[in-house]
Amino acid sequence: MSRTVKDFGIVCGVLPQGTKNAVTDVPGVRVGSCTLREGDINTGVTAVLPHSGNIFRRKVVAASHVINGFGKSTGLVQIDELGTIETPILLTNTLSVGTCATALIREAISQNPDIGRTTSTVNPVVGECNDGPLNDIQALAVTEEHAEMALRSAHDGPVDQGSVGAGTGMTCFGFKGGIGSSSRRIELDGSEHHLGALVLTNFGNAGDLVLPDGRRPSPEMADSLSRARENGSIIIVLATDVPLDHRQLNRVAKRAGAGLARLGSFWGHGSGDIAIAFTTGNTVEHDSTNAVANMRILNENRIDLLFRAAAEATQEAVLNSMLSAEDFVGRDGATRVSLASILCRSE
């Protein structure tokens, strides 16, 4: 069973968690995964669906923020030009971005046969991290079918965390990394809202991790791993049902970096650190003929609540990705210890 910060008495910030403490606390958001683990193959795909309908037809307002741009993601340029997302978000390994993008295109065409013929083309959104040390990334093991499996498995329940889906072969601060999630409840004008984070963690030098209580746990191989350059990455997906516009979402996405900094990350030269944020509180209809669209936005005198939620949920999601992962043996016998194992030994 996955372990989280709650199991170790770790507290990240002051805002209350959502019921599931996951990105799926945002109504409509669903997450699925496909895990590949056999021999030297340790990889997979994770899918985040903003809502259960036709996302191309009913796009969600979105933004992205590149903290450090050493990455190969797709779709970010159009997100920041048009301010919307029109496909599910897929996460995978670096060399499988194209495969997952093709799968998203096929999925969108199957639902919308007019794509590229009588209407616009589609902008697939894929994020990646390099799982090479633990996975034979050159095998190109991820297929379109695996991406489709992740999409089909998406649900709105608790999120599988740790060494699952895209997180199967990832490393974080020298520990086993992977998929992590967390959420925060926010009250605005007497109504309850949520902001949730889902992360794919593959960043941070061994020995740099700082827990909220000041402890600095290190894996046994910290000395050898810390001599390596910071070449890892993290993809952060932030979702909320608070109505925001593109500019406001960009401001919220930037605060994910504060969550990383709290953990001891400095976003190294070779790190690809990217945040993608969307709201289900504002959607854009693909087929609308109205000259003027109605859109609600948050009073920015209240936006600090979302800034804090983004930092806290990101920090906690990263820790959950490591605590939920078990000790791991990957390609050519490369090993990564779980953060949970180290904390249990110190108790």
Provide a brief overview of the structure:
The chain is of the alpha+beta class.
Number of domains: 1
Whole-number mean pLDDT: 95
**What is the count of β-strands?**
14
Would you identify the CATH H-level superfamily?
L-amino peptidase D-ALA esterase/amidase
Notes on the protein architecture:
The chain is of the alpha+beta class. It has one domain: L-amino peptidase D-ALA esterase/amidase (4-Layer Sandwich), CATH 3.60.70. The protein is built from eight helices and 14 strands. The protein has helices at residues 76-82, 97-111, 144-152, 222-226, 246-254, 256-262, 304-324, 339-346; strands at 30-38, 41-49, 58-69, 84-85, 89-93, 125-129, 171-172, 175-176, 178-188, 191-202, 233-240, 272-285, 328-329, 335-336. The strands form four sheets. It has a six-stranded mixed beta sheet with strand order 4-3-12-11-10-9. Helix 2 packs across helix 3 (144-152) and helix 6 (256-262) crosses helix 7 (304-324). The two termini are 20 Å apart.
Features:
single chain; globular; Peptidase_S58_DmpA; ArgJ-like_dom_sf; aminopeptidase activity; S58 family peptidase; six-stranded mixed sheet; alpha+beta
Question: SSE layout and pairings?
Answer:
Layout: E1 30-38, E2 41-49, E3 58-69, H1 76-82, E4 84-85, E5 89-93, H2 97-111, E6 125-129, H3 144-152, E7 171-172, E8 175-176, E9 178-188, E10 191-202, H4 222-226, E11 233-240, H5 246-254, H6 256-262, E12 272-285, H7 304-324, E13 328-329, E14 335-336, H8 339-346
Parallel strand pairs: 5-6, 11-12
Antiparallel strand pairs: 1-2, 2-5, 3-4, 3-12, 7-8, 9-10, 10-11, 13-14
Helix pairs in contact: 2-3, 6-7
